[in-house]
Specification:
By secondary structure, this protein is mainly beta. The chain has one domain. The chain is 13% helix and 41% strand. The protein is built from 1 helix and 8 strands; from the N terminus they run E-E-E-H-E-E-E-E-E. The strands form 2 sheets. The protein has a 4-stranded antiparallel sheet. It is globular. The N and C termini lie far apart (30 Å).
Length: 99
């Protein structure tokens, strides 16, 4: 496997860019992503990213979010990132909001 380091946490593997996070950096990453408007949450040790999409109802990764305070709920698509055996989360860059 060819891994090229672009900057501190971003790598490219077979043309796909990933942000690689370890135990010390993942909480700060989640905090920053939430500040930038990303819908990311913890589910156990997994990171779950949710993006609104009207295709969510027919997608195998589709999820419905109930509305709050009288707002209507919305369909979206979840991306789940699990921690690997080395203690790293490899987040696809398409799920990362950059400042």
């Amino acid at each position: 496997m060819l891994v090229l380091v672009h900057h501190e946490n971003e790598v490219s593997v077979k043309g796909s860019k990933l942000v690689v996070l370890n135990f010390d950096s993942v909480d700060g990453f989640v905090r920053e992503q939430r500040k930038q408007g990303s819908d990311v949450r913890w589910d156990g040790w997994d990171l779950v990213f949710w993006k609104p999409s009207h295709y969510g109802f027919s997608n195998k990764n589709g999820a419905f979010r109930r509305g709050v305070n009288g707002k209507r709920g919305r369909w979206g698509v979840e991306t789940r990132v699990t921690v690997n055996g080395d203690g790293l989360w490899k987040v696809p860059s398409k799920n990362v909001k950059h400042s």
